[in-house]
Structures are given as C-alpha cells and as structure tokens.
Amino acid sequence: MALIAIAQNRKMEDYLESVRRAGGEPIEVVVGAEAPEHLLGRVDALMLTGGGDVDPALYGETPHDTFEAAETGRDAFEIALARAAVKSGIPLLAICRGMQVLNVALGGTLVQDIPSQVTGALEHSVTQPRFHIAHEVWVSKGSRLATLLADHMEDGETCHVNSRHHQSAKDLAKGFEVTATSPDGVVAAMEKPDAAFCVAVQWHPENFWRTGEFRELFEGLVQAANARKR
C-alpha cells in the first residue's frame, strides 16, 4: 500500500480519511521531525495541507493587515519539503495553504488578501459547513485536473467547490500552469505539466470524503504513488 505523507495541521481527520478511502496509507508529518529528503525517501507521495498564511517576507512583501501566521516552523519546513518533492519528482497534491506554499517555494507570489486586493471578488471564505458550495470554478480543458474531475464537471469545464481562504496564487512559479480559475479571476488550481503528478487546488476536497465528490484527486495521487513504487 502506498505511503502518503501528509503535512500536519490542526484539522487532520478529513485529510487522513480521504487518503484511506482512496486506497493509500496516510502518515502525519510533524514539523521539523526529520529532514525533508529523509522523509521523502521513505514515502511514496506527499500532501501539503491547509492552515495559516505564508509569511510574505518569503516572497518579498510586507504583511497585509489581515496576515495570520501559521504554526511556528511550518513555513520553513514545508517550503523545504515542497522544493525537495518537486526536485525528486515524488507525486504531490497541495491543498489550500499547501498550494500557496508550493507556489512560494518555487518562486511565485501571492495575493495577500482577496477581499481588498481583487476587484469584484467573490466570497472565498465560507467556513460552515465545511463542505458548503461557495462558487464555481472553470477548469482548463486538457489539464490533469480536468481529467481527474471529468465526472463532476458541467459542460466539461465547470466545477462547484467549497472555499475557505483569503489568499491565492498571484505570479505563478516557473514551470506551473493555471488549471482552474474562479469567475472573479482568482487562481483556483495549478499544476506542473511535466511532472508525474503535481497538482494543487485552492479549495478543500478533503471535506467531501463522505460523499466522494473529489475522491479522484486523492485516487490520482495514490495511483501515481503506486506507479512510483513499481
């Protein structure tokens, strides 16, 4: 069974269960417990998870008034982990903050506060219930994301998602492509097309493990991990 390392946060249950339902064995990654290269050498895939804001100093900006830091040590550890994962080619799924970490780790920048910095912004922070549909996203045809979510899209390009974030990718890291946007232009997903599996989404697919709307994202990660094992 593929071992999937999951970056630890305060709300792990849904991430763990999503991996189990997809056929993988989840392992919680404690910040700083071991070097990223050592960790990635003993697992088959990596998941970066949600949480607080990435320190804007890491992409050359000063903090917005709404900045809320993540747990101590997460930024440095997860950025090192993301870089090592991309370099090694290990399958990677990044969710919400995880997408932001991945983008910053590889040289991208972030919109620090969508409500005040994006004209005509939709509501991107709908906290309860966690699986409440907040808005639609438009998925790029031909992307890996489109292939994974084919059974859930209207007209082959529209998908409805939940949303709990106030930041998003702005300038994308080199080698990545936008694969979904919200109607207000906010980047909702990105991927590295030349990687075996490197997909990032801004919403929270893990909250749907009971009903299975986005199970294919986790199944895709596990399948890529199994292929790497072989």
Describe the largest sheet: 9 strands, mixed
Distance between the termini: 11 Å
Structural class: alpha/beta
Mean pLDDT: 95
Fraction of residues in H or I helices: 25-40%
Please report the number of helical segments: 7
- Overall body shape: globular
Name the strands of the widest sheet in spatial order. 2-1-3-4-11-10-9-6-7
Structural overview:
By secondary structure, this protein is an alpha/beta fold. It has seven helices and eleven strands. It has helices spanning 13-21, 36-40, 74-88, 97-105, 114-117, 144-148, 215-229; strands at 3-7, 25-29, 45-48, 92-95, 110-111, 135-139, 158-161, 168-169, 177-181, 187-191, 198-201. It has a nine-stranded mixed sheet with strand order 2-1-3-4-11-10-9-6-7, sandwiched between helices. Helix 3 (74-88) crosses helix 4. The termini are close together. The mean pLDDT is 95.
Provide the fold topology.
Layout: E1 3-7, H1 13-21, E2 25-29, H2 36-40, E3 45-48, H3 74-88, E4 92-95, H4 97-105, E5 110-111, H5 114-117, E6 135-139, H6 144-148, E7 158-161, E8 168-169, E9 177-181, E10 187-191, E11 198-201, H7 215-229
Parallel strand pairs: 1-2, 1-3, 3-4, 4-11
Antiparallel strand pairs: 5-8, 6-7, 6-9, 9-10, 10-11
